[in-house]
Design a protein that fits this description.
This protein is of the alpha+beta class. The chain has 2 domains: about 5-35; about 50-185, MucB/RseB, C-terminal domain (Phosphorylase Kinase, domain 1). Helix content is about 25%, strand content about 35%. The chain has 5 helices and 12 strands. The strands form 3 sheets. Strands 3-5-6-7-11-10-9-8 form an 8-stranded antiparallel sheet. Strands 1-2 form a two-stranded antiparallel ribbon. The longest helix is centred in the N-terminal third of the chain and has 18 residues, at about 5-20. The protein is globular and about 100 Å long. The termini are far apart.
Length: about 190
């Protein structure tokens, strides 16, 4: 036999051996590389729902929410959508690239409701006709403001993490005084 035939024989034998090999899974079943690549990845469903129908969001969350009247919103912000999950109702507004989000809940409060754990240079309180709100931002403009009442909690988020692009004391006062929320069962 020639050297060429020996090399071809070794290559054919190696290829047949590789083709016959499979990988064993935990059940002892073998699968080929092609079968292993077709696994299906299952993702968790998004718990948030989006709507422009306030009644739908209220019914799903159990919160009767009166969003800020147009003259209570900071100038130039326009309504985009409502979002909701089991116990959070959210109203989203936009002015160009700037975003304003109002979240209301009967169960979550403070930072937990906002979901914003950014580090802000200043934290302070404001009192709006007896309603004490916690502000986070640069000391003048608040990016994250929240108020916890007995049975309802608010978080107002404006350009999160971008100090110097938040809401002023007057804008916050107008927002908080221009909206209302109560649990539906309290109605």
């Amino acid at each position: 036999m020639t050297d060429k035939n020996i090399v071809i024989g070794i290559l054919v034998t190696a290829m047949l051996a590789l083709a016959a090999c499979g990988s064993a899974n935990s059940a002892g079943k073998t699968e080929t590389a092609a079968e292993a690549k077709t696994e299906t990845v299952v993702e968790m469903p998004n718990p948030w729902h989006e709507t422009t129908d306030l009644e739908e969001a209220e019914k799903a969350t159990g919160i009767d929410f009166e969003p800020p009247m147009e003259n209570s919103l900071p100038e130039g912000y326009e309504f985009v959508t409502y979002r909701y999950t089991e116990d959070i109702l959210e109203a989203d507004y936009q002015r160009g690239e700037e975003q304003l989000t109002i979240r209301v809940s009967t169960t979550l409060s403070g930072l937990e409701l906002s979901g914003d754990y950014s580090e802000y240079s200043k934290q302070w309180e404001e009192n709006f006709k007896g309603l004490v709100v916690q502000c986070n931002g640069d000391g003048t403009l608040s990016n994250l403001t929240y108020a916890d009442l007995e049975n309802i909690h608010f978080a107002v988020e404006c350009n999160l993490g971008e100090e110097g692009k938040g809401l002023s004391e007057e804008e916050l006062k107008s927002l908080f005084m221009g909206m209302q929320a109560v649990p539906l069962e309290a109605k």
